[in-house]
């Protein structure tokens, strides 16, 4: 998967295309991600007593990872990512536009 938890991504297709947000949860087995403020769903919750009031609750739904791109702060747009091996022997993700190392 080309994105991880905490990455800043931009949605490239669908009803929320163009929105930028942080990845809250990455689910590689399902090939989906949950992004902050994207694909907002509503759920009508029943009143479950005085401590759990009912009402309309909004939450983020999962979207397919193929609909998002990593958002490079330097380029100010969505970019493709690649992998490179650094001089110390570690494998890191890099931006294919500017060559910046994404994993710190």
How would the blueprint of this fold be written?
Elements: E1 8-11, E2 20-27, E3 32-35, E4 40-45, E5 55-60, E6 62-64, E7 68-72, E8 77-79, E9 81-85, E10 91-95
Antiparallel strand pairs: 1-2, 1-7, 2-3, 3-6, 4-5, 7-8, 9-10
User: Rough shape?
Assistant: elongated
- Provide the CATH top-level class of the domain at 8-78: Mainly Beta
In CATH terms, what is the architecture of the domain at 8-78?
Roll
Q: What is the chains' assembly state?
A: single chain
Mean residue pLDDT: 94
Q: What string gives the helices and strands in order?
A: EEEEEEEEEE
CATH topology of the domain at 8-78: SH3 type barrels
What is the number of strand segments? Answer: 10
Question: Roughly what fraction of the amino acids lie in strands?
Answer: over 45%
Helix percent band: under 10%
Q: What profile does the largest beta sheet have? A: 6 strands, antiparallel
Using the CA coordinates, give the radius of gyration: 17 Å
Q: Give the end-to-end Cα distance, rounded to a whole number of Å.
A: 18 Å
pLDDT under 50 segments (min length 5)? Answer: none
Organism: Tissierella creatinophila DSM 6911
Domain KOW: 2-29
GO biological process, one term: translation
Function: One of the proteins that surrounds the polypeptide exit tunnel on the outside of the subunit.
